[in-house]
Amino acid sequence: MASLQFLPLKASHLYANTTTPHNSSTSQFFLNRENRKHVFKKSLACRAAKDNTNDQENANDSFKNVGGKFDRRDILLGLGGLYGTTAVSQAAFASPVDATKCGNADTLPTCTNIKDANCCPPPNPNISDFIFPTNQPLRVRPAAQLADKKYIEKYNKAMQIMRSLPKDHPHSFAQQAAIHCAYCDSAYEMVGFPNVKMDVHFSWLFFPFHRWYLYFYEKILGKLIGDPTFAIPYWNWDSPDGMPIPDMFADRSSPLYDKLRDDNHQPPLKIDLNYSKSNPSPVGNELIEANYRVMYTQMVSSSKTPELFFGGAYRGGEPQVKAAGALENQPHTQLHIWTGDPEQKYGEDMGRFFSAGRDPLFYSHHANVDRMWNIWKTLPGKNRKDIEDPDWLDSAFLFYDENEKLVRVKIRDCVDTKKMGYVYQDVPLPWLGARKPPKKGKGKGLGKKSGVANAAEMPQVFPNANQVFPKVLDGLLKVTIPRPKKSRSQEEKEDEEEILVIDGIEYDGDEYIKFDVFLNDEDEVESGPNNAEFAGSYSNVPSKSNNRVKVSMSLGITELLEDVGADDDDNIVVALVPRTGKGKVTIGGAKIIISS
Ligand code: C2O
Asked: What is the CA radius of gyration of the chain?
């Protein structure tokens, strides 16, 4: 029964019928071409202006055959049938005609006067299941800073052609850019759940969605120049030479250039992977080291389990419990914010989800994120493997392929990039050695200096977390948190990870929020990743407006507790340091758990 409770997300389900007039379910599945056009036009209307009652009625119609009344339980049972053999359900849900609609994005507060609210792909009634092309030559994605002149010319040419296609052509750059808006600003809904919108961020969909997105972007570019070996470059921001915006994207005469970027962050300036907007970035070697530390923390020490790395589960029909994986949270977010133009109202292009895809650099940023998924699986540790949950493996998205066919792709087909026909150029990983050795004289955690054994025995300067939260984070906050178990054996540590969970993090989705987290830090002014006590950072790319966002963050701390000498302590002291959006974020609670 349990498996019927949850349903993988399928983009085809997400073209729910929320925009057609209230009519019979049969007719909406077999619209002729003219009607479809009409429907598509209608969908341009602002979602906010739509009548919810209508949505509800439509949903009732959709479920007439399988569940009767619109009720969550019925729906789940009905959809369970879809994966069985019920012919009626198949017709009702898997009908390709149904998968032609997508609504407006939640992009901006007043979508009526903003063209950006519509970012759906050209409608197409024919959806086929994706099949890998046979005999495709291997594509090797180069590090952007190492690409030669010939390669750059090739990419320029492909982008030139892509930019010159008519806006409504599925291969045009405008359409490629719109994909990000549609999947990231909740344009898609799930069939039967007209009020449940989909956002591929803050969840385990983050890595696979972007992987498929880049796959088609790359195949289309290759097709445009008749070169099936063409592979997009990756922005190698984890290596010193790769830290500035790669030159090919900064060349003003290139179609790879985008003017909506921060003027103060042009090459040769190196990215700050802990960029906060409000605090000055370190410079020189200090910056490089801080970047290594961020990479080490996010890739090695705090993300030892699939859930920590990929993010929280997200299943069909369920409201999303937002929990980004380690790398999505940082440095993925920082790269968006650092690159976008702060003079634009919304930090366009890279600083907002709806516009991020309009910067060609976006695809190279995400190629490096994607490369990190491959690297993560090769690092030592028992639990570094792909998620095995079928709800993840069977989740599906829709894309136009290089032959202009609309195809449904599944996550299970993207876990191995070799199968997808590509690999990444091998370069050194200088951050692998960035673990901070345990501090001398700090063997017993916070208490050492004052001669007491652990945080619990400290004079009660730092109240217990459950006495403090919920609390608005308007300044440095230190709380004491009890640990479920201390002094675990090496074996136990390999099997299970000690995790700091900060949840009920609430703010306006419109705001850029960033706060840093430190463990048992003795300093009064926590500086950043170069502190051995740096545990991680929460940050977001602003997206929805007029929307309170509630997220949770999990940081693996087994290794860090050793490094700060707190492994034998009953409690730890957690410091939260607001960097951006001081006073605009509420923390619901914090606890420590042990989990595999
Ligand atoms: Cu879909 Cu970098 O975001």
From this structure: 24
Q: Is the CB of 184 under 6 A from ligand 1?
A: yes
What is the pLDDT at residue 407? Answer: 94
**Catalytic status, residue 180:** yes
Instruction: Determine whether 210 is an active site residue.
Output: yes
Q: What secondary structure does DSSP assign to 328-360, as a single string?
A: IIIIIHHHHHHHB-TTSTT-TTTTSHHHHTTST
Angstrom distance (rounded) from CA 224 to CA 159 = 9
- Above 90 in pLDDT, residue 413? yes
Residue, of 105 and 114, whose pLDDT is higher: 105
This prediction has a pTM of 0.82
Chain center to CA of 490:
32
Q: Which of 13, 171, 201, 265 is catalytic?
A: 201
Tell me how far the alpha carbon of residue 88 is from its chain's centroid: 35
Ramachandran sector of residue 537 (left: φ over 0; alpha: ψ -120 to 50; beta: rest): beta
Q: What is the mean pLDDT of the chain?
A: 80
Residue of 573, 568, 294 whose CA lies nearest to 438: 568
The reply to whether 201 belongs to the active site is yes
Is 336 marked active-site? yes
* 571 in Cβ contact with 481 (< 8 Å): yes
Dihedral sign, Cα of residue 569, residue 572, residue 573, residue 575: positive
What does the DSSP assignment read for 390-442? HHHHT-EEEEE-TTS-EEEEEGGGSS-TTTTTEEE-----GGGG-PPPPPTT-
Task: Determine whether the shortest distance from the Cβ of 337 to ligand 1 is under 6 A.
Answer: no
Write down the pLDDT at residue 50. 28
Identify whether the C-beta of residue 347 lies closer than 8 Å to the C-beta of residue 337.
Answer: yes
HEC secondary structure over 438-464: CCCCCCCHHHHHHCCCCHHHCCCCCCE
pLDDT of residue 357: 96
Which of the residues 202, 353, 462, 534 is marked catalytic? 353
- Taking each helix axis from N to C end, the angle separating 206-224 and 361-378, rounded to the nearest 10 degrees, works out to 130
333 C-alpha vs ligand 1 centroid, how far in Å?
Answer: 8
User: How far is it, in rounded angstroms, from Cα 544 to Cα 583?
Assistant: 19
| Closest to 313 measured CA to CA, from 327, 305, 323, 302 | 323
Gap from CA of 507 to ligand 1 centroid (Å): 19
User: What is residue 438's predicted lDDT score, i.e. its pLDDT?
Assistant: 65
Cα-flanking dihedrals φ and ψ of residue 388, to 5°? -105, -5
Q: Is the CB–ligand 1 distance for residue 336 below 6 Å?
A: yes
Q: How far apart are CA 157 and CA 173, in angstroms?
A: 13
366 is catalytic: yes
At CB < 8 A and 24+ separation, what contacts does 60-63 make?
A: 61/17, 61/22, 61/23, 61/24, 61/25, 61/28, 62/16, 62/17, 62/25, 62/92, 62/191, 62/192, 63/192
User: 353 C-alpha to center of ligand 1: Å?
Assistant: 6
Give the closest residue to 2 by CA, choosing from 378, 531, 391.
391
State the helix-helix crossing angle for 72-82 and 87-94, rounded to 10 degrees. Answer: 100
Kindly give the number of the ligand 1 atom that is closest to the alpha carbon of 180.
1
User: How far is 360 from 261, CA to CA, in rounded Å?
Assistant: 11
Q: What does residue 592 show for φ and ψ, rounded to 5 degrees?
A: -120, 130
The ligand 1 atom at the shortest distance from the C-alpha of residue 206 is 1
Q: Quick check: 171 pLDDT over 60?
A: yes
Q: Which atom of ligand 1 is nearest to the CA of 210?
A: 1
Task: Tell me how crowded residue 345 is: count the other CB atoms within 10 A of its CB.
Answer: 8
Q: Is 288 in the pocket of ligand 1 (CB under 6 A)?
A: no
